[in-house]
Design a protein that fits this description.
The chain is of the alpha/beta class. The strands form two sheets. It has a seven-stranded parallel β-sheet, with helices on one face. A two-stranded antiparallel sheet has the order 1-2. The longest helix has 10 residues.
């Protein structure tokens, strides 16, 4: 299998036998005390703003090697972290905010992987905005791993330390997909 090279970290992110923890934002993280287990993975993926000071090390761990974000979230500004913009609702907005020289997130795109707007046009037929970024990240990248892939914070009925409603249309299908395919969720 060929590796997915990480131009930011200068090493492959998909490597033989390397383990992957994908940390979602569901309330199942609360009280789980899985922080050490999460941090023991070779790669640790986190989403949007559940990073840095918003982490509770005992529940969520503290390592981040890949940061997946939407159009409203700035990169973490750490050269050791691969930044991935998986905006599905407003990819043009995200593209412009990161790529235009006078934009709010200008110059942050130099180390950010993004879905090209032309690729999004093809994705529009599958209604990408109806899926969680966690599922899309797993589908595009996580399933390429030969080592163990564990999902944390991908079950429950609410968000981790956030009262906002879950709005993605296919969350229940995603949970069924993980269960049927024996993908470990915590």
């Amino acid at each position: 299998m060929s590796n997915l090279d990480n131009p930011v970290m200068g090493r492959p992110i998909v490597d033989e036998g390397r383990s992957l923890a994908i940390i979602g934002g569901a309330d199942s993280l609360k009280g789980g005390r899985l922080g050490q287990e999460i941090d023991a993975h070779g790669e640790v993926v986190r989403f949007n703003e559940i990073v840095g000071s918003k982490l509770v090390p005992e529940e969520t761990g503290s390592r981040t090697t890949v940061h997946v974000m939407n159009t409203l979230v700035a990169p973490l500004d750490d050269p050791a972290i691969l930044e991935v913009d998986l905006e599905t609702n407003a990819p043009w907005s995200s593209y412009c905010k990161r790529m235009h020289t006078r934009a709010i997130l200008a110059n942050d795109a130099r180390s950010t992987l993004m879905i090209r707007p032309s690729a999004y046009c093809v994705m529009a037929g599958i209604r990408a905005a109806d899926w969680t970024r966690g599922f899309l990240f797993y589908w595009f990248i996580g399933r390429l791993f030969n080592g163990p892939v564990d999902l944390y914070g991908f079950s429950g009925n609410g968000h981790y330390h956030n009262d906002l409603e879950i709005t993605e249309k296919w969350v229940q299908f995603e949970h069924l997909f993980y269960r049927v395919n024996n993908i470990t969720r915590h």
